[in-house]
Amino acid sequence: MLIALTGTPGTGKTSIAKILEKDYTVVYLKAYEDARLYWDDERESYVVDIELLKKEVQKLKGEEKIIIEGHYSHEMPVDMVIVLRCHPQELERRLEKRGYRKEKIKENVEAEAMSLITSEAIIRHGKNKVFEVDTTGRDEMDVAKDVKRIIEERDRKFAPGINYSEEILKWY
Ligand SMILES: Nc1ncnc2c1ncn2[C@@H]1O[C@H](COP(=O)(O)OP(=O)(O)O)[C@@H](O)[C@H]1O
Ligand SMILES: [Mg+2]
């Protein structure tokens, strides 16, 4: 069974995946260097060959529960999607700390406020396979525990629908 661990940059995918390595095999999409097409200067990130990645991920399918980590893991042929979320104000702080420039912070904070990744995941996989976990103001170990519970029990109690759209209204 393949599980996507996705979310806007800064929501905590890598931190949480590292903790989950104790219990699961974790595959980091960033590690597939062959899938890099070119460096996009404007977005300061690689443009990747999604179709090639899909083929690679497809090869991993089987009995074992494998976590696929990356902000386009929800585009992969997975059985379940976990979207990490973060309140836009806290996300802004996390990305500032990471040294992202203003434009890139704005783009990501807006995407998060609009629930872009959740929407993409639901369009691709349907509502029943998509689970959200809020990381705002929380301990990383707690978040990892929630993710594990969702994987093992598919329990929606730990995955509320998250809506930050009110936040957008405050910006104007
Ligand atoms: N509850 C939390 N869950 C995950 N990350 C958190 C949490 N609280 C604070 N953080 C911090 O947010 C940052 C997330 O970075 P990272 O894991 O690299 O995100 P991503 O891989 O999604 O870009 C880290 O500095 C992490 O310590
Ligand atoms: Mg990361």
Précis, in short:
It contains seven helices and seven strands, in the order E-H-E-E-E-H-E-E-H-H-H-E-H-H.
Can you give a write-up of this model?
The chain is built from 7 helices and 7 strands; from the N terminus they run βαβββαββαααβαα. The protein has helices at residues 13-20, 50-58, 88-97, 102-113, 116-125, 140-153, 165-170; strands at residues 2-7, 25-28, 36-40, 45-48, 66-69, 80-85, 130-134. It has 172 residues and is α/β, with parallel strands linked by helices. The strands form 2 sheets. It has a 5-stranded parallel β-sheet, with helices on both faces. A two-stranded antiparallel sheet has the order 3-4. The site of adenosine-5'-diphosphate has 14 residues, from helix 1 and helix 6.
List the helices and strands and how they pair.
Blueprint lengths: L1 E6 L5 H8 L4 E4 L7 E5 L4 E4 L1 H9 L7 E4 L10 E6 L2 H10 L4 H12 L2 H10 L4 E5 L5 H14 L11 H6 L2
The chain binds adenosine-5'-diphosphate and magnesium ion (MG).
Adenosine-5'-diphosphate binds next to helix 1 and helix 6.
What keyword list fits this structure?
single chain, 172 residues, alpha/beta, Rossmann fold, 5-stranded parallel sheet, two-stranded antiparallel sheet, 7 helices, globular, binds adenosine-5'-diphosphate, binds magnesium ion
